[in-house]
Structure formats: structure tokens, C-alpha cells
Amino acid sequence: MATIRRIGVLTSGGDAPGMNACIRSVVLTAAAHQIEVIGFSHGYNGLIEGDYTKLLPYHVQHIIQLGGTILKSARCPALQTEEGAKAAAATLRQLQLDALLVIGGDGSFKGALAIAQHYKGQILGLPGTIDNDVDGTDATIGYATAIDTALDAIDKIRDTADAFERIFLVELMGRHSGFIALSAGIASGAEQIICPEFGTLEPGQLDTVIRPIQNAQVLKGKSSYIIVMAEHCYPGGSTTLAADITDAIGIECRACVLGHIQRGGSPVGADRILATKLGAYAVEQLLGGAHLMMAGEVNHQAGLYPLQASGERKKRIDPYLLRWQQQVAND
Predict the structure, then answer these.
(1) 61: how many CB neighbours lie within 10 A of its CB?
(2) Does one domain contain both 259 and 300?
(3) Is residue 317 part of a domain?
């Protein structure tokens, strides 16, 4: 068993509901093992600049239900340089930390790997991102809440779409991944879903979107039509696509971009439980000597996955749901 007396923790990159629950779990589990926890503010910036605070159990009381992160988060361009990685490692050595826990996505894990080149302590990652685009875990912390947030918005948009007999195009987050769009689209009963896994959509391919709309209006008598779209799937975004659809068929199509609303809010139960489980598991695995690994959950079992491999390939979306949605859309 490794000797761990003092560890650091930070949240990096885009915030995700459940990050606070994960911080809480790390602190409480560490306290049970007589391990001191140092929390760095504003992601890697706090690590490089020496902006930190000692976290005790009373600091994490009543935060499990809070969105955001009490440690704050930020991008850190400085860490993309060797000087930045060396400065971060220097802080870890200066504070005599035996290990560092990084809560974030694949970009944050790349930063952890850069620091590892100059630091002899242990480093573990915890997958905190709404995008669910990290390999080695079935779900990331924040993903379930993001789906519920999107679903609530789409359900409300359906009401007004029905009332005015309109087409609505709802743009969701997901960078280059369609996890949120596919899940929220299926759960809301959206008529169409546009995400990277279905292929890129160009203005010259607009007929693939328009034809199902026209068929639904004429053959199925629909009074509303919802298209859920992942960001970056059409040149100019959802606003441009909505205008192009309106011009093409003469029926008004409105765009609604949910944006950062998907990253906020109180985490749902699934995210609180996942964050608590992985936070505790990560601390326990440090005691077992784990290094340069990510704590994830596959088939309801916590496990370790190489940190380097977590972002090497594009995580596959559920192929069954993809096939089902394509069949329904083409029916």
C-alpha cells in the first residue's frame, strides 16, 4: 500500500453538475484515511499560481446538491507550454503532495499527463464533463443532468410548437459528440436528430432534413415538429439551418440554442451517486498505488482505465440507438 499523507484536487475545463459531489466524496474519504486534501482554485491556473486552500470535511457540508464547483474552473493556456507544466509540478513538490486528483474531461487529462513528466507523485483522473466523450466509463459526471436539463427544455418547446404549429430546431452542446443530442432527442420524442454520428450536414444536403418534414406534415398530420441538433453540425449553426428550412418549405422554423444552461443546475441523483462513488474509489486506488489512471464505471462496476487512452479515440455512441433513430426517421 502506497503511503499517502497529502493530496491535491482540482476541477478543470467545462464545469459539470456533480463536480461538487465528487469534491465532497474525495475530502470525506481522504479524511477517513487521515489524508490531508489541498484544493486548487480555477483549475490548473491555481496549481501554477499557488492559489489553494486546505479542504476539511466541514468545507464540503451541504454541497452535494450544488451545481458548478466550489473550487471554480477555467481553461489554462499556460499548461500547454512546458514551462507551465514545470511550474505546476513545482507547486506540487513545494506543497509536498503525494498525489493529484484531476476532475475534468479529456483536455484536462492531457494537462495531467504533461505535469506527470515533471512530477514523481501519483496522478489520477475523474471524468467530469457533460459531453460523455471520455473512454473508459459508461457515463461521465454531469452527463445525466445535462440530458435532463435538455429534456425539460425540449418538452416546453414542444408545447409552444404545438400551439403555433411550428417547426423548432433545438441546438444542444456536445462539441464533436452526439451523446446529449441523441439521448435527449430520443427521450423527448423528437422527429429528427442531427449529430456527428449521422454524418456531416451541408447546405447541399438540405433535402435529407426537409423531405421527412414534408412527409410528416402531409401523411401524419403533425401539428409540431422538433429537430434536435448537436452543435457544429451545420455551417452557421442552428440559426442558419432554421432559416434555410423556412426558405425551402415556407413553414416557419425557429431555432433555440440551449447553450450553457446545460452545464448548470443541481445534479440529478445519478450524477450525485456516480460522483460520490468515483471520488471515494479514486482515493482508495491512490492508496493502492494507482498512477496515471482514470477512475470510471463500466457495467456498474468502478474500475481504472489508462489516462492516456481516455481520449485517444472517439468514444462510440450506442449503435442500437443510432440504428433505431435512423429507422424511425426514415419510416
Answers:
(1) 10
(2) no
(3) no
What the block records as the C-alpha cell of 96 is 509536498
The C-alpha cell that represents 271 in the structure block: 450524477
Q: What is the pLDDT of residue 221?
A: 63
Task: Identify which of 318, 16, 10 has the alpha carbon closest to the alpha carbon of residue 173.
Answer: 16
Per the listing, cell 409540431 goes with 224
Phi, psi of 176 (to 5 degrees): -105, 25
SS3 of residue 241 by DSSP: helix
Of 15, 98, 131, 133, catalytic: 131
Are 145 and 180 a contacting pair, CB within 8 Å?
no
**Strand-pair category, 301-306 with 99-104:** unpaired
Grid cell in block for residue 249: 418549405
| Residue 98: active-site member | no
pTM of the model: 0.95
End-to-end CA distance of the chain: 58
Contact 258, 172 (CB under 8 A): yes
**Domain, as residue range, for 291:** 6-142+267-311
The domain total for the chain is: 2
Residue 181 and residue 193: Cα distance in Å, rounded? Answer: 7
Q: Which three cell numbers stand for residue 226?
A: 422538433
Read off the pLDDT of each residue in 263-279 and give the average, rounded to a whole number. 98
Q: Is 143 helix (H, G, I), strand (E, B) or coil?
A: helix
Q: What is the pLDDT of residue 176?
A: 79
